[in-house]
Amino acid sequence: MTTESTGKGRPTPKRKDAQAKVKVSSLAPVVTKEQKRAAKLASRQDRVASRAAYLRGDDNALPARDRGPERRFVRNYVDARRSIGEYFLPIIFVVLVLTLIQIPAIQFGAIALMYAVLLIAVVDGVFLGRKIKRLMGQKFPGSETKGLAMYAWLRSTQMRRLRAPHPQTKVGDVVN
User: Fold this and answer.
1) Other CB atoms closer than 10 Å to residue 77's CB: what's the count?
2) Looking at the record, which segments are called Disordered (predicted)?
């Protein structure tokens, strides 16, 4: 009696093939290139739609820092008025150009202009914050006003066309 080993009847697989078989991810199912392309396009369209909703000011699309009727009121109040802070960035650009001129009096004047506008913007922000808190007490009694003054001041220092969400009111409108 001889015992012959007949083997398993198939060749031993290469190591990389065996490991690849084990590594099938349950998180990423096998998809074709066309399915990947369609998913990418759908994802892009979702992002564009949610960005447009954010810029329109839809409450569902806003981040937590911009949500709620109080924040909407603050945004509308700030957008309905002009402030020196929204002109700060263009003024800084002018100051930069003026400091390139090699005349000390012009350079000094440009730097003084920059600091003056900064000081006026800060003072305007303090008065804006006080007014916002007073109006919030009248319009939304009992609601939390923490952070609303800073929110209003930061929005007032942004150039109007760069504000996000976009302004819903025109300059000079009465905000209720």
Assistant:
1) 23
2) 1-25
Chain segment 67-80, per-residue pLDDT in tens: 999 999 999 999 99
Q: At what angle do helices 148-156 and 104-139 cross, to 10 degrees?
A: 140
Q: Are 120 and 136 in contact (CB under 8 A)?
A: no
Q: pTM score > 0.85 for this model? A: no
- Predicted local distance difference test score (pLDDT) of residue 112: 96
CA dihedral angle for residue 173, residue 139, residue 166, residue 44, rounded to 10 degrees: -150
Question: Tokens at residue 142, please?
Answer: 């009992």
Report the 3 state secondary structure along the chain. CCCCCCCCCCCCCCHHHHHHHHCCCCCCCCCCHHHHHHHHHHHHHHHHHHHHHHHHCCHHHCCHHHCCHHHHHHHHHHHCCCCHHHHHHHHHHHHHHHHCCCCHHHHHHHHHHHHHHHHHHHHHHHHHHHHHHHHHHHHCCCCCCCCHHHHHHHHHCCCHHHCCCCCCCCCCCCCC
- Burial call 129-168: b when 16+ CB within 10 Å, e when fewer: beebeebbeeeeeeeebeebbebbbebbbbebeebebebe
